[in-house]
Design a protein that fits this description.
Helices cover 71% and strands 0% of the residues. It is mostly helical and 207 residues long. It is globular, with a radius of gyration of 18 Å.
Amino acid sequence: MNGFTSLFYFIVLIISIMIHEVAHGLIAEQEGDPTARLLGRITLNPLKHIDWIGSVLLPLVLILSGTNLLIGWAKPVPYNPNLLQRGKKSIALVASAGIIANIIIAVFFGLVIRFGVLFKFANPALVTICTIIVLINIVLAMFNAIPLAPLDGFNILSAILPQRFHKVIDFIEKFSLPILLLFVVFGWQFIAPLGIKLYTLITGLGL
């Protein structure tokens, strides 16, 4: 991966993460909680969202290491669950918003590739640019959907499971970090092929 491509990967990742976080804030506001807007977090200004470890250091290390996994995180957009109008349903919607935003981005640029190839207006550069955007957003959506704290998947799971499963939620939350680290190191290789299949499904192209 040359320097320009690495820089583009990094920029796309940062923008995708910011959109992910803004989506949380927008849905929280829609559900009755204006906290994110009042704190100036419903913005694409990167300085409002950047976490120097998750948004800068980790992605750069992953890019330079040549790994197939490119992930990161921004400062979470805050929300007040007590202000949400529909309780756990609202919590689940807020948690899902970031994942859905990444899926929408992946589908949009994937369809640009599909129709660009079909109607012969997509040159190799456009396909490469859109491929990077699609893959990064597929990975972000899949990673954040993992039901381990502090990822969105855990918040969705804890919101939809009945109260009688609180011990399960407590157990997952307690051991999420070591499980997540083990998953990233040893388990992601088994999930990555799903991302490639999703890319092919959206774009009609193989990798």
